[in-house]
Amino acid sequence: MNEEDIKKKLTPEEYKVLRQKGTEAPFSGKLLHDKRTGTYQCKVCGADLFSSESKFDSGTGWPSFDEALPSAVGLKQDTTHGMVRTEVVCKNCGSHLGHLFDDGPTKTGKRYCLNSVCLDLI
Question: What CATH number should be reported for the domain holding residue 20?
Answer without folding.
Answer: 2.170.150.20
